[in-house]
Write a structure and sequence with these properties.
The chain is mainly beta. The chain has a single domain, classed as Immunoglobulins (Immunoglobulin-like, Sandwich). It has 1 helix and 13 strands; from the N terminus they run H-E-E-E-E-E-E-E-E-E-E-E-E-E. The longest helix has 10 residues.
């Protein structure tokens, strides 16, 4: 019996999988870009799957990938324009979240839900943001390192 691409897609949609992330928290400095690494095991093609990254509210996502596109309709306002997936890597089961210009408010728990149409799995991630709103983050294009300058207030008492 000849196997078609359609039959193969149906088989992968029904296959069980897990969403795997790092065992420990991910750390980032205020102003940096960070990746919350997540992958499917086994490494299935996730291009036709729903990928939803959330904080506290399932229906207000940090990022929603559905029907092969990023949906921004109900996205948390603070994340608009700062989140992405590695869409070219979805074929390898990479569902990692890329977060740009990290803020203190980004600190905390994230959840990644992956739904194939017949199977759903999720994983939890912790992002620890270091620095505060008084930190100024400067990236130097000619240097390979980032420089963090902290504004300090000096209190004098007499």
């Amino acid at each position: 019996m000849k196997s078609t691409a359609r039959n193969q897609l149906q088989i992968s949609l029904g296959e069980e999988f897990q969403v795997i992330g790092p065992p420990n928290a991910v750390f980032a400095l205020v102003g940096e870009d960070v990746t919350l690494p997540a992958s499917m095991s086994p490494a299935l093609n996730a291009q036709g799957f729903d990928v939803r990254w959330t904080r506290n509210d399932f229906f207000k996502p940090v990022l929603l990938y559905q029907n092969s596109e990023i949906i921004t309709k109900n996205q948390i306002e603070a994340y608009k324009g700062r989140t992405s997936l590695f869409t070219e890597e979805l074929v390898n089961g990479n569902v990692s979240l890329r977060l740009q210009d990290v803020r203190v408010s980004d600190d905390g728990l994230y959840k990644c839900f992956v739904y194939s149409g017949q199977w759903e799995e999720d994983a939890h991630f912790t992002l620890n943001v270091e620095g505060n709103s008084q930190c100024q983050h400067n990236k130097h294009p000619k240097k390979k390192r980032a420089e963090l300058k902290v504004q300090e207030e000096l209190m004098l008492s007499f």
